[in-house]
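Model the whole thing, not chain by chain.
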Amino acid sequence: MVVKVYGAGYGSAKRVIACLIEKEIEFETIPIDLLKGEHKHPHFLQLQPFGVVPVIQDGDYTLFESRAIIRYYAEKYKAQGTDLLGKTIEERGVVEQWLEVEAHNFHPPVYNLVLHTLFSSKLGFPADQKVIEESEEKLGKVLDIYEERLSKCKYLGGDFFSIADLSHLPFTQYLVGDLGKEQMVRSRKNVSKWWDDISNRPSWKKALDVCNP
Amino acid sequence: MVVKVYGAGYGSAKRVIACLIEKEIEFETIPIDLLKGEHKHPHFLQLQPFGVVPVIQDGDYTLFESRAIIRYYAEKYKAQGTDLLGKTIEERGVVEQWLEVEAHNFHPPVYNLVLHTLFSSKLGFPADQKVIEESEEKLGKVLDIYEERLSKCKYLGGDFFSIADLSHLPFTQYLVGDLGKEQMVRSRKNVSKWWDDISNRPSWKKALDVCNP
């Protein structure tokens, strides 16, 4: 069964695409144009009542929330492709811890930077300079903690690549790319090495090709 | 091994306490006084570099982020106490989806209501009336979607109680209690029935006794 991924061009959906590629799962992408409001159409709201992307359909199984989707495929196909959860329940616990850190500490400030720097004019609201400055400061503090963590192990969840690292790919890509803030990564030796490692995985290069053809 | 829970009096830590009780795991609570800044002491930052509660210590295993901790115990002791994850990987996927909804859609507005209504004066900043109004409006929309979901199944993750429901307990308790917004729950028939069900579980009553003696 080919997995259908709705909204594949957007940041959070790239998490799902990178995971499906790591797990060697066949998929097709179905575009959803947020600027045209397609995510608020009744048909889409039947799949995702909050009206956000991504959503997957896998036969008659539908799932939304990108981090729930990557957990599902990492567990369902544990023995296929890259193992993204760790070998033991304790290792998975630490992976889950850093996936939560990504969601609650890393993502909000970098999302605000993306929103106010790259999308505010497209979405028709003024960029808030105060939000931009505060977000950059918060993100810097988070990256300082990552720098310390990555001095002790190669990846966030331990000495193996996991969904905790994978989940950082889309928005760190914005940070070093369109946001022009590569220095925030490069000024931290261990974060810089980690970024080179995870962003050079063939899965991420392929995900970018699929999502930004 | 008795699990040590740091910061048990606070909202997110109650998630962990409720889970440990459901799983019949022995624990002890270690108070951390946020108003005295104990969460920023070097000793605590060694356990939790972001300086927030809760943290658990289980022998030499340390874990933070409340939703990572409840996933860990739900999985490690799957066959002990209440099963909180569902029987199949597909059921767990749906549980994870609604746990993510709790974290990203439900929690932020209710947390803002708690912060600006109950804690702003203690923490020494003025309550922002605009944030309060916007948060209540956002929360209302989320609860409308819950009302629809709970018309189709007894609990958020399906017809079984799970970590997705459990994770809502501490901040819904604030909502119907100290925030004085019980009407937001009671005006929605299915949400109201769900709240009566989950808040009357012996585990939650015991968690409140442990945390607010």
